[in-house]
Description:
It is a single chain. By secondary structure, this protein is mostly beta strands. The protein has two domains: 41-173, Spermadhesin, CUB domain (Jelly Rolls), CATH 2.60.120.290; 184-223 and 232-323, Sandwich (Jelly Rolls), CATH 2.60.120. Helices cover 7% and strands 41% of the residues. The protein has two helices and 25 strands.
Amino acid sequence: MTQNPHISLLHACRTDLEDKAVNIIATNAIDDEVLEILRPEPTTQLEHDENGQCIFVKTEEGVYSYVSPGNTHEVCGLYVIAEPDQFVAFEFEEFDVSCSHRGLLSVIDGWELNGQFFPGTDDHSVPRKDRYHEYCGVTKPWKPFHMSQNVGLIEFRIPGKGEGFRVKVSFIDNHKPCNAVLQRPQGVYTLRNYGRKINCTVSIIFPESIRVLAASVAAEERVESISPPSEKQFVETGIVKECAKRGLKDYVEIKGGDGLDPGQMVVAEDFCGVDSAPSQQKVDVACGNTAIRLVSSGEFDNSVTIAYDLYDPSLESASPSLICPTLLETP
């Protein structure tokens, strides 16, 4: 990609509602509410802007349609983002992408931009080659595509006029989220591994000020005879810095960069330990993208809770831990 990017019906109820609607129609007493439920979902048309650009970022479920205006060789992208505790799913309803016109459509598990992926290729559960699914022709992909996190991408080049596709976007609950892109530049978020041997990252596509509210990373259990067996207590070590350099296998990295892949970002700070008291110190990341990465060996149930807010360089207290070239101020 060369450009920068900045509800489905309840299927379980559909049969009962359709049966009810048939009976109502038979008596010419049609209920408006039932008709509203049975009415086809509205379609959002994806159109090139006045500059011919075609990068679309969508945060809602629904049906999206694209029809090529013709004579365009732009690579377009439908970037979909749900809430952090949801999966994204795609299901094609119509498909017409001519192979002979050099048309191509790719479904990508995650986001891709300028050759970089989120989640990073090193930390994703699916090999990179299996995260791409490419199609052309007039036969729509027969299966739904379920993303591994809250973001997914449909990337396409459709030169043939009148050709295109229609796709249904759905969001599915994810009870143990790992990798996620956060939609808002301010908030509080808890990143956990749920005891798994897995590396999890949250990405915030803004320069951010990060403050650690609580951490339990590589927590050592305290053994005390007075504690009930069902209650685990952990030693409050406080925050320990540079855990990766010490050779520890469980730690948190606060990173920054100008691309999507956390593996290509620079570490502003890394830490581990147990601390239930909010830190008064902030880590300022003056980069286009900020990431918090939790590295877990599977030996501990790790978690870290952060407060994040937009980095404001005009504040007197602003002292960035990391500055990326694109955010360097020029006189």
